[in-house]
Amino acid sequence: MTHIIESGRSDFIKVNISNSHNDAVAFEVKLAKDLTVAQLKSKLEILTGGCAGTMKVELYKGEKCISTLDNNDAQLGYYANSDGLRLHVIDSFATFSFDSASVEKFELSKDQYDKRSDSVRNYLKMNKMGKYNEEEMAQLEEKRKQQAEEMQKRADLCVVGERCEVTVPGNPKRRGTIRYNGQLEGKNSIFIGIQYDEPLGKNNGSVGGKVYFTCEPNYGSFVSPLSVTVGDFPPEDFNLDDEL
Asked: What is the DSSP letter of 71?
């Protein structure tokens, strides 16, 4: 099971909510980290129309499912402690089968739906949630823009052939040489290919069967430009002859 834990003292997180009944509908809510999963499901029951007793809740980062909230007594903060994640509710949503041939189909035009006061869209507008919170959406867009600019700025410094030091959370600092700078097949972000001085990597310069550079097995890795510091980093001396 994967848990997202980040530093910060906020007692709340902002997450997006989606459901299996309509994957195209998603909106943002602010939730207390100390909510138990059982309490969270009760809130999701109101927001999505699912049943708290039968729903399954999955945690997504982008399009990747990273965890399932399967312990009703655990707190939300145990699974997620950072903004921008998505809670996906899976349930039957009380769907019934019947012969629709004899039933007149009820449809609302876009204008009619916009005028309704009991719609989900109107609820989001009235509470300035999700995309209807212009100030918050503008802040998010500015943050994305700044992150993209910083990513490109750091990537421009990563010249192939330069020495570097790599710092990835949860791993020791590693030194090596830059062997690749660009996108990977199937990925949108920029990645920096590193050949480490020691076998502390994950591959040989290949990902998904495609070769981006060549090195010995476990000497290669691909990381974010934000994890790379370019500079005069000579290979470290691991000679332990003088150690008793």
From this structure: -
Task: List per-residue pLDDT tens for the chain, 244 residues long.
Answer: 444 434 345 688 999 988 887 765 577 889 999 999 999 999 888 888 888 888 999 999 888 999 999 999 999 988 888 888 999 999 876 554 555 566 666 677 777 777 777 777 677 767 766 666 777 778 888 888 888 899 899 999 999 999 999 999 888 999 999 999 999 998 888 999 999 999 999 999 999 999 999 999 999 999 999 999 999 999 887 555 555 5
192 membership: H or E segment, kind and range = strand 190-196
Of residues 232, 147, 139, the one with CA closest to residue 190: 147
Please, are residues 60 and 86 in contact by the beta-carbon 8 Å criterion?
yes
Euclidean distance between CA atoms 164 and 228, whole angstroms: 7
Beta-carbon contacts of 111 under 8 Å, excluding residues fewer than 6 positions away, are none
If one counts every other C-beta atom within 10 angstroms of the C-beta of residue 175, the result is 18
Residue 45: its H or E element? helix 37-48
Q: What share of the chain is helix, strand, coil (3-state, %, to 5)?
A: 25, 30, 45
